[in-house]
Amino acid sequence: MRDLPVIIVGAGGHGRVVADALQAAGRSVLGFTDNDPSAWGTTRCGAPVLGNDDVLRQHEPQSVLLANGLGTTRVSTLRRDVFLKLKAQGYRFATVVHPSATVSPQASIEEGCQVMARAVVQVGAAVAANTILNTGTIVDHDCAIGAHTHVATGATLSGGVKIGENCHIGAGATVIQGVSLGDECLVAAGAVVVRDAAARSRLAGVPARPMEKT
């Protein structure tokens, strides 16, 4: 299946990072889809923007793999919804690992995960489907990360951390050992999380505390 060409859904910044990781790993990028008509017919990382998602109908699900090119800067359902919609149509998603990343053979990385340049995934870690481990992230031993979560650039999850589904862990944030976060939590950039938090918590600061509602 690794030999199948990949179409990236979304031709923005994150989509180009995904393309770069795939190409660095020697995989074929057939092109991108994007909803912006001004992008159609242009190229990204040497691959064409083919049109919107309707062009996927030209490719039987067994003939290609998809990669989710949608990034997030906060908790959002868009990336999850695109993944689930296209899975329901029979498409499969490439698991993307940049060659400079380090993934323990004793770690588990599910379908559609993206492990970017210089990221580290240690022994016993389990990363659920459609999750982004962005540039330089550290996921230490025995962490568990729920589906559709984004661990942003330079964030660190210490040993035994549990992260729920559809969370956003901001750039440079740290979650100390053994902490658990519920589904749809947002951890602001640079925060240091030292205690458990319930689903839909919004945390910022050092040590991290709930954000004030505005």
Automatic annotation (TrEMBL):
Protein name in the entry: PglD N-terminal domain-containing protein
InterPro entries: AcTrfase_PglD-like (IPR020019), Hexapep (IPR001451), PglD_N (IPR041561), Trans_hexapeptide_repeat (IPR050179), Trimer_LpxA-like_sf (IPR011004)
Site label Increases basicity of active site His, positions: 142
Domain of life: Bacteria
PglD N-terminal domain residues: 6-71
Protein's organism: Alcaligenes xylosoxydans xylosoxydans (Achromobacter xylosoxidans)
CDD domains attached to this UniProt entry: LbH_AT_putative (cd03360)
Family matches, as Gene3D superfamilies: 3.40.50.20, Hexapeptide repeat proteins
